């Protein structure tokens, strides 16, 4: 599990973080979980800059499929993404603090590459503020059970990452 500071250079990596990641992963062949603030991809931002710097700086380890799971937060929502060519499990778990307006309807289709999004909102009040939440990772041998929990303590979704 590697945590990187993507906020020092906004939406990027301050050198020598990318070379450090490459070195660590060359020395350790286990599955890697990456934790960052900024996103590698997005269902909300579709500009060419989204994830560009991270993709370029981490290109060698991504191309070698050395990042198995990536959790990030920047967009303040909860979204599970489809597997990409380079990352099996890409997850946006940024719904822990700053409120955002829920613009998608619960029954509507997901914006690719999203495979799931918690579209519930706080029912009281005039605004549709998205529900807050967090993720719990339980390590069980070579598997990780991930439970996604809302602000009231209810489990929204769970998965096993292997």
List the helices and strands and how they pair.
Layout: E1 2-3, H1 17-27, E2 32-35, H2 52-57, H3 59-63, E3 67-72, E4 78-81, E5 89-93, E6 114-117, E7 133-140, E8 143-150, E9 155-161
Parallel strand pairs: 1-2, 2-3, 3-5
Antiparallel strand pairs: 4-5, 4-6, 7-8, 8-9
Explain this structure to me?
The protein is built from 3 helices and 9 strands; from the N terminus they run βαβααβββββββ. By secondary structure, the protein is an alpha/beta fold. A hairpin with a 4-residue loop joins strand 8 and strand 9.
Summed over residues and divided by their number, the pLDDT gives a mean of 92
CATH top level class name:
Alpha Beta
Total count of helical runs of at least 4 residues: 3
Sheet with the most strands, sense and barrel status: 6 strands, mixed
Report the CATH topology name.
Purple Acid Phosphatase, chain A, domain 2
What would the principal axes of the Cα set say about the shape?
A: globular
End-to-end Cα distance, whole Å, is 14 Å
Give the class from helix and strand content and strand pairing: alpha/beta
Low-confidence stretches: none
Radius of gyration over C-alpha positions, nearest whole angstrom: 16 Å
Strand content: 25-35%
Taken in chain order, the helices and strands follow as EHEHHEEEEEEE
Total E-strand runs: 9
Measured as a percent range, the helix fraction is 10-25%
């Amino acid at each position: 599990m590697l945590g990187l500071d993507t906020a020092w250079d906004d939406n990027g990596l301050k050198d020598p973080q990318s070379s450090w990641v490459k070195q660590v992963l060359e020395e350790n062949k286990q599955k890697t979980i990456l934790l960052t603030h900024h996103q590698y991809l997005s269902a909300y931002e579709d500009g060419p800059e989204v994830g560009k710097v991270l993709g370029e700086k981490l290109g060698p380890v991504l191309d070698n499929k050395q990042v198995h799971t990536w959790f990030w937060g920047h967009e303040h929502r909860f979204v599970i993404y489809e597997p990409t060519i380079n990352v099996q499990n890409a997850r946006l778990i940024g719904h822990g603090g700053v409120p955002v307006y829920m613009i998608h309807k619960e029954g509507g289709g997901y914006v690719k590459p999203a495979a799931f999004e918690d579209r519930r909102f706080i029912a009281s009040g005039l605004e549709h503020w998205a529900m807050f939440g967090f993720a719990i990772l339980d390590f069980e041998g070579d598997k990780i059970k991930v439970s996604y929990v809302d602000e009231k303590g209810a489990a929204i979704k769970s998965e096993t990452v292997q």
